[in-house]
Sequence to fold (298 residues):
Amino acid sequence: MDFAIIGQKSPSIAWEDLRSERKKKQRRGGDLSKKAPAKTSGRDFSWARILFELGSKLFLAGVVIYLFYASYNFLTSDPRFQVTDVTFSGNQALQENQILEWLGQVHGENLFAYDLSKASERLAEHPWVLSASVQRKFPQEIQIELIERVPYARIKFEKVFLMDNFGVVLSEEKPEYRNLPLIVQPGVKPENFSGASVIQSLKTMHYFNKLSFFEKNPLDTAELKGHSRIVFFTRNRDLQIQMSMETLTEGFKKLMIVLDTLEDDTAKIQMIDLSFRDQVVVRDRTLAHSTSMKTPTN
Fold:
């Protein structure tokens, strides 16, 4: 029996197709094998580059840190930068040795390690110092600039002290300031002293001394009695003026009226009391009696 085979290829054609198919598979396999190693090598190269850059940066950072450390160590330990000279400006009442004693060790300290801010703060704590500035000058000098407080009056506790115009107690009295006004405040210690009322009384004394009446015999002493009364004394101690601390301005106006009223009789006055609200009491030295004068009130 004969069978007809439809579409059957000849052996030679089939063999060629088989070889062609086999070559295609080999080519695909070769391409895959080439691509895979290429990806792996690319990743390896990327990581190597990152590690190299990181290592370089760490190395440079280490070099910089070392250079800073070496420089700092050199500046703070080399004897060529030890302080050998301290200069001062602005100090008049304070002597240089007093400032150094208050400040502490400066000579021999390292110029760059010396704490300028701490030194300025320490100087500002001194009663005589209003403000202070400390600077370094290369290679071995420290410069100290001061603004001192100015004594404005003397104030007597158990001893006599100096005080500035802010009511700050400076130190015990010095001979060169004995011409300053004296404030007496019995029973008060320097550490419990409040200068507000004292400053106000000093201002009042200053206004009084501008009057021609006190030109040759100015007020130079004030005694505070309690919290509300003050007594002024002239330099010759031949006249006293009593006032209330609560009405100093009004008392000044009353005194102006009294002096205008008495005119030539002012030389006989021993005491003027301005502490009352609507009157002034005047005590005559020669007649040894008191006179009460009404004063106008607003």
Residues 31-74 form one domain. The first strand starts at residue 85 and ends at 89.
